[in-house]
Amino acid sequence: AVIAGGAAQGLCKVDRERGAYVGHHNTNEYDMIPPYVVGSGSMEQKKVTMEALQEVIDGTVAYGKASVVGLVDGYVRFIDEDPLYEQAVPRHIRDVFSEFLSDLSSGEIPYTLPAL
Fold it and tell me: Burial code of 7-24, b = ≥16 C-beta within 10 A, e = fewer?
């Protein structure tokens, strides 16, 4: 997975040269080095920021208390609607992965986030 900030371009260059596949983090980057990017995810940072700012404006913010949100809450998602994803990953694998993500986001497959 590429979680490297400004170094991502160099990592992707090496991945392409070596024929390695890439999972990209936080933005849709299927077009970075097709067909080597086989997954992109998104964290809804703008959404959570706007919600936090609204709590400040409303005077309802709980200072000193951490909140944890994730996939089940709709703040993390896998980007599967890009045609480059469909071209890079065989249909049967996309179908199995889609079912897994559905089960994970519905809570059917339990997972825990570390406590803050």
Answer: ebeebbeebeeeeeebeb
Q: Which amino acid is at 7?
A: A
Work out the burial of residue 79: count CB atoms within 10 Å of its CB; fewer than 13 is exposed, 13-18 middle, 19 or more buried. Answer: middle
Asked if 41 contacts 79 with a C-beta cutoff of 8 angstroms, the reply is yes
3-state secondary structure of 93: helix
On whether the pTM is more than 0.85, the answer is no
Q: Which residues, other chains included, contact 114 with Cβ-Cβ below 8 Å and sequence gap of 6+?
A: none
Which has more confidence, 41 or 96?
Answer: 96
Strand stretches in the chain, DSSP E: 22-24, 37-43, 76-78
pLDDT, one tens digit per residue, over 27-69 is: 888 998 889 889 998 888 899 999 999 999 999 999 998 888 8
Q: What is the residue whose two structure tokens read 């997972």?
A: 111
